[in-house]
Amino acid sequence: MALHEELSIRIYRDMVRTRTLDEQMIKNARGGIMRPPWHSGLGEEAVIGPVALLNRDDYVTYTHRGAYVWIAKGMDMKEIVAEFYGKATGCSKGKGGTHISKPSLGIFGRAGSQGGHFVLAVGMALAAKFKGKGQAVLSFFGDGCGTRGTLHEAMNYASIHKLPLLWVCENNGFSVSVSIDKCWAIEDIAKIADNYAMPGKTVDGNDVVVLTEAAQEFLSRARKGEGPSLLEMKTYRWRAHVEGTTTRYMPKEEIEEWRKKDPILRFEQVLINQGLLKEKDILKIKGDAEAEVQEAQKFAESSPDPSPGDGLLDLYSPSLT
Ligand SMILES: Cc1ncc(C[n+]2csc(CCOP(=O)(O)OP(=O)(O)O)c2C)c(N)n1
Fold first, then answer.
1. Which of ligand 1's atoms lies nearest the C-alpha of 143?
2. CATH homologous superfamily of 5-298
3. Would you say the C-alpha torsion 258, 289, 294, 81 has a positive or negative sign?
């Protein structure tokens, strides 16, 4: 299954938009005016591909490098930056911080306890199955949090009940400062799919075309009622676990090697070779992304703080849509 033109350009544009936002958020975190921590996903932009395949009413869970998911699923940058600034105009009215949510787009925040979201994804997939409208769940998880026991119960249950779910392991080689070989006894995490009688595949996580094509196949399987699957994308994070912390455990040569595999530059070359993009289109996309991020930044800075009296509002919602 090849990626069609509209999808390819949309993925490329969203990769550029998110990288531009990520770079701005790194500055914001350094500047000390933004209180919540920033977990950069620079180098992991191929995540955009599978998300770009989702419909508005599909559900998605994200790791703490979630900007790629929020943007590709359709969130407005303004409501994201404003949320990080704790402003009343943020997507959770300034009360969510890093736990970005947008229920109308199938984004329900993030489990602070790593691995907590495995079972929440199963709940979403059960809901999707009961509704019977062909919705699917795309659930990202890091290689570190994949070592939690919740993974077992969630994958086992999802497979027994043939839930419409695609697990994507965003394997960037580290759990904070602990390297993958100290967390997993196997080399390819996708191999665990066999234990749950579901298909599993490991792909080059910096090749957005290969990754998206694999996700396309697994998502269509999920939508047909054939059950869950596991896709492992091998990638690397270019920066520290969280801004402001050390990268001493990351060999400099290793970072350089991975920077050469930049998923955006690689995809850009593919699109140029296919005649889908020209140099001037690329400049325009980058310029537009920069303008969009600056507008979001200004919006967040000039937005009002939430009023203290609103602190106890929105604690319970009878409906998530
Ligand atoms: C249950 C639990 N244990 C530990 C932590 C602290 N913690 C936060 S992020 C993280 C590592 C996550 O690594 P990974 O899942 O690989 O995601 P990545 O940071 O590589 O994107 C840990 C151990 C936590 N939040 N919850």
1. 16
2. Thiamin diphosphate (ThDP)-binding fold, Pyr/PP domains (3.40.50.970)
3. negative
